[in-house]
Amino acid sequence: MPRPSIPALALWICCLCLPLAAAAQPANLALGKPVNALTDTVSGQPGDVVDGDPATVWWSYQGNYTEVSFVLDLGRAEHFTSVVQFPRQTSLLVVEFSLDAQRWEPLHQQTLPWPGNAEVAVQRADRPRARFFRYTGSNAETAYAGVGDFQVFDADGVFADGFEGDAAVP
């Protein structure tokens, strides 16, 4: 029986490892969780911000000012290391987090150049805990403000394949 060459053996090992690397992606803790709209809906649904697809956008408009705002409930307190949001037509965004939906801590505030269509990622190496996230995006234009998606991750916690990493370590 012929022996496989070193490059062929290396390629075979890499192919075996690819599914393992793909499965080790942190789970989006916000995916499919309840969203409480704090502003009016003109297009889309508030749940569009947690469907995992930045192309589905929830748009809001109040007539004399433009703001989109919601509270996301993870269902229980979770550690997190990053929050990714996809604002649309947004000049200013503010993100806060809370354990009880009463006392809010600032996570991120940013001014975006118009038209404010971006992917904004915020990293937190200290892994704070939160159950609720409050997002507010606004613009000074006569245009709807929207959110394409809002994602919460814990890189040291539960992965998409169910592996919990060091999440049990206090």
Summarize the structure.
The chain has one helix at residues 6-23; strands at residues 35-37, 58-60, 66-79, 82-88, 92-98, 105-111, 120-123, 129-139, 145-153. By secondary structure, it is mainly β.
Any descriptors?
170 residues, four-stranded antiparallel beta sheet, Jelly Rolls, 9 strands, 1 helix, mainly beta, disordered C terminus, 11% helix, FA58C, Galactose-bd-like_sf
Describe what this molecule looks like in 3D.
- Keywords: Signal.
- It comes from Aquimonas voraii.
- This is F5/8 type C domain-containing protein.
- The chain is mostly beta strands and 170 residues long.
- The chain has a domain at 57-153: Jelly Rolls (Sandwich), CATH 2.60.120.
- It has one helix spanning 6-23, and strands spanning 35-37, 58-60, 66-79, 82-88, 92-98, 105-111, 120-123, 129-139, 145-153.
- It has a 5-stranded antiparallel β-sheet with strand order 1-3-8-5-6, with no helix packed on it. The chain has a 4-stranded antiparallel β-sheet with strand order 2-9-4-7, with no helix packed on it.
- A hairpin with a 6-residue loop joins β5 and β6.
- The chain is globular.
- The chain starts with 5 loop residues before the first helix and ends in a 17-residue tail after the last strand.
